[in-house]
Design a protein that fits this description.
Blueprint (H helix, E strand, L loop, with lengths): L4 E3 L14 E4 L1 H4 L14 E2 L12 E4 L2 E4 L1 H8 L9 E6 L4 E19 L3 E22 L15 E7 L4 E10 L3 E6 L8 E2 L24 E4 L9 H4 L2 H8 L5 E5 L12 H18 L3 E5 L19 H14 L3 E2 L1 H17 L13 H16 L5 H9 L45 H11 L22 H9 L21 H13 L21 H10 L14 H11 L2
Parallel strand pairs: 3-12, 11-13, 11-14, 14-15, 15-16
Antiparallel strand pairs: 1-10, 2-6, 4-5, 6-9, 7-8, 7-9, 7-10
Helix pairs in contact: 5-6, 10-11, 10-12, 10-14, 12-13
Length: about 575
C-alpha cells in the first residue's frame, strides 16, 4: 500500500509494517525485522545495546500531531543525560529517484529534521511555539550498508524529527525531476549513523550528510561515501557501480578521498591516488555529469615534539589542486579551510567539533561546519554554466549550531564501546603478554593507543628500517608525530627489535599523550634519581597521571602486558 500524504492531527497511525507501507519506526520492532535493523536503510538512528531491553521510544499524540516526550523518556533510561529521542517515520515509495518532502511541525526551540540515512534536511530555532513548515529534496536509491557486501534497495522516505516535544503535524511528498549531487568519499564524508538518546556532540557525522542543509532547493543529495574507502576500494567494493547506474547528464559528482589512501603504498598522492581521481573525473564527464574535487578534511593532529600542527595530508591536497588545474574542474579546498579552523581553535578547543577521543572524524557540529566551509569556498570562486547554476542553489548559512562551542562529554557507558566502521584501529588485548616488548611493537602500541594513522613509507629515515617490514608504516607515523626521540637512536639506526625499558616506553607513550592532551605540570617524583635525563619529564607526567606504581623498577624491560595496562590507564 502506498500513500504520499499524512495528517497526524486527524488520523492515528501506528508502527511501520511492510503490509501497510508506512508508519512510525521504533527500536522495539526494529529488533525483530532484519531490514528495519539496518540503520542505513532507514533514518540512520539506532538505540545502543545497553537499552536493548528498554522501550525507549514512546509515541504520543495530541491535537497538534505526534511527538516523543524526550524529557520523560531520557530521565527514565539515563537520568544524567541531556539527550533527545528522535520521532522516526517511514513511508514506502514505488521507485527510486528524487522526491520533494513537505512537513508541518509544531513546537518551539531548536528543531532538526533528518531524512534518509540521517542527512540533515532542515534546522531552525523557533522563538515561540507555533506551526513550522519546511520542504526539502530527498534522493532515494540503492546502497551497500556498513558490514555488507551486497547491494540493498532503498525504497522509502524516512524522516526523523528531533526537538523537545516537537509535533509532527502533517507530511506529504511527490516525485520530482531535478539534478542530483552525488558524493563519493570516506568516513569523513559518509552518512554516519547516530545512537539515541541523541546528542550532536557525541554523534559521528560526515560532511556529506550535512551539506543538504545548505542546498534547500533545486538539487537532491545522494551520498555514497563509506568508511575505510580509498579511490580504489570505492570502485572495487561496488559503491561506484551504484552511483554509475543512477548518475545522468546534468548531475554533479563530488569526490573526497585521501585519509585511507595514504595508508597504502600504491596510492601515494601523485601516484595511484591521483590516477584514481582522474578516472572518476573522466568517467563523470563521459556521462554528462559535472565533477568537483574536494581536498581531504584536515585532522586535529599535532606534533608531540614542538606542539605544532601536523599536516599529514598536504601532498594529497596538492595533488587535488594539480588535477583540477589539469582537467579544468572545480577544486574546493576543504583541507585548507578545515586546517585553518583547527589551528585557529587549537588542539583542545577543536575537540568540540570531533567525536570524543577521535581526531579524524567530526561530530554533528563539526560536520555542519565542514559542509559550510565547502559551500563558502565554492561560492567565493567564479563559475560559469552548470557550475554557476550549482552556486545559485547554495545558501551560505550565517548561523552556527547552538552549543557547538562546548566540548562534548561522553557518558561512561559510551567511552570504551568500539566503533565497528571506524578507520582507526582501537587498542585491544595482546597475545604473548609476558614477553618483553620490542621497540617496533612499542611504537605500534603507542600510535594505536593515541589513535594516530599508519601511513605509507615515503622516506628511508633509518638505515635498519626496510619498507616491506610490517612496522615500516608505523615507524614513519611515529616519526611524523614526534614519538621517536633522538636519544632512542644509535647513529641512524632505530633498532626495531631492541627490547624497551619501562621508562623508555613511558617517554614514547607520554609524547603520544601530549599530542592529544596537555601533560600535567612538571613536578619532581620518586623516580627522578634513577631516570635517564631525557625520560624525567615523561616519567614525572606518568606519575602525576597515576599510571605507574612508586615501587616499580622503571629501568627494567617492560612486558607487553604491562605496556598494554599503561595504555588502557591513560585512556587517551
Amino acid at each position: 500500500m502506498y500513500r504520499d500524504s499524512f495528517d497526524f492531527r486527524d488520523e492515528e497511525i501506528g508502527l511501520y509494517s511492510a503490509e501497510a507501507g508506512f508508519g512510525f519506526v521504533t527500536e522495539e520492532h526494529r529488533r525483530g525485522d532484519e531490514l528495519l535493523g539496518i540503520a542505513e536503510l532507514g533514518v540512520g538512528f539506532d538505540v545502543p545495546y545497553w537499552y536493548c531491553n528498554e522501550k525507549v521510544t514512546r509515541i504520543l499524540r495530541d491535537e497538534q500531531g505526534c511527538y516523543v516526550d524526550s524529557g520523560e523518556t531520557v530521565q527514565r533510561v539515563d537520568a544524567a543525560a541531556d539527550r533527545l529521542i528522535p520521532l522516526c517515520f517511514r513511508a514506502d515509495v514505488r521507485e527510486p529517484g528524487n522526491y520533494e518532502v513537505e512537513l508541518v511541525l509544531y513546537g518551539a526551540g531548536e528543531i532538526c529534521v533528518f531524512a534518509g540515512p540521517r542527512r540533515l534536511a532542515f534546522r531552525e530555532i523557533a522563538e515561540k511555539e507555533g506551526a513550522v513548515t519546511c520542504s526539502f529534496l530527498l534522493n532515494v536509491c540503492d546502497i551497500i550498508p556498513r558490514g555488507k557486501s551486497d547491494r540493498y534497495e532503498r525504497r522509502s522516505i524516512d524522516i526523523a524529527v528531533v526537538g523537545r516535544q516537537v509535533r509532527l503535524s502533517a507530511m506529504n511528498f511527490r516525485p520530482v525531476s531535478c539534478p542530483t549531487l552525488y558524493i563519493a568519499g570516506d568516513s569523513t564524508v559518509t552518512d554516519q549513523t547516530a545512537e539515541y538518546p541523541y546528542a550532536p556532540g557525541t554523534s559521528y557525522a560526515g560532511w556529506g550528510q550535512m551539506i543538504g542543509c545548505y542546498l534547500p532547493r533545486g538539487i537532491a543529495v545522494s551520498n555514497h561515501a563509506h568508511s575505510g574507502l580509498t579511490v580504489e576500494s570505492f570502485r572495487e567494493e561496488g559503491h561506484y557501480a551504484i552511483l554509475r547506474d543512477y548518475i545522468k547528464p546534468g548531475d554533479y559528482l563530488m569526490l573526497q578521498f585521501g585519509h585511507n589512501d595514504q595508508k597504502l603504498m600504491h596510492l601515494q598522492a601523485r601516484g595511484g591516488y591521483r590516477d584514481g581521481l582522474a578516472a572518476y573525473v573522466e568517467e563523470a564527464r563521459e556521462r554528462g555529469a559535472y565533477p568537483i574535487i574536494i581536498t581531504p578534511l584536515a585532522r586535529n593532529s599535532w606534533k608531540a615534539d614542538d606542539g605544532s600542527y601536523n599536516d599529514l595530508l598536504e601532498k594529497y591536497a596538492e595533488a587535488c589542486m594539480e588535477l583540477g588545474h589539469q582537467y579544468h574542474v572545480p577544486v574546493i579546498d576543504l583541507h585548507g579551510r578545515s586546517m585553518e579552523f583547527v589551528t585557529g581553535k587549537g588542539l583542545e578547543n577543536a575537540k568540540a567539533y570531533f567525536y570524543p577521543r577521535d581526531f579524524t572524524h567530526t561530530n554533528d557540529y563539526g560536520a555542519y561546519r565542514m559542509a559550510g566551509f565547502i559551500v563558502r569556498d565554492y561560492l567565493e570562486q567564479v563559475w560559469s554554466g552548470a557550475y554557476r547554476h550549482l552556486a545559485q542553489l547554495m545558501t551560505e548559512r550565517s548561523d552556527t549550531w547552538e552549543g557547538e562551542a562546548v566540548l562534548p562529554t561522553v557518558p561512561e557507558r559510551y567511552r570504551d564501546v568500539p566503533r565497528p566502521d571506524s578507520d582507526i584501529p582501537l587498542f585491544a588485548g595482546l597475545d604473548r603478554p609476558k614477553e618483553p616488548l620490542t621497540r617496533a611493537e612499542a611504537l605500534d602500541m603507542v600510535i594505536k593507543a593515541a589513535r594516530f594513522f599508519p601511513i605509507n613509507v615515503f622516506n628511508d629515515l633509518f638505515e635498519d628500517i626496510v619498507g616491506h617490514e610490517w612496522y615500516a608504516g608505523t615507524v614513519e607515523c611515529a616519526h611524523q608525530n614526534g614519538i621517536i626521540l633522538p636519544q632512542m637512536l644509535s647513529g641512524n639506526r632505530l633498532e626495531p627489535e631492541k627490547t624497551v625499558t619501562t621508562e623508555e616506553f613511558l617517554a614514547m607513550v607520554m609524547r603520544g599523550y601530549s599530542s592529544r592532551k596537555k601533560l600535567p605540570k612538571d613536578k619532581p617524583c620518586v623516580f627522578d634519581a634513577v631516570s635517564q635525563l631525557y625520560c624525567i619529564p615523561y616519567v614525572r607526567a606518568a606519575c602525576a597521571l597515576g599510571v605507574i606504581e612508586d615501587s616499580e623498577d622503571i629501568r627494567e624491560i617492560i612486558t607487553r602486558e604491562h605496556a598494554a595496562e599503561i595504555c588502557r590507564a591513560l585512556n587517551i
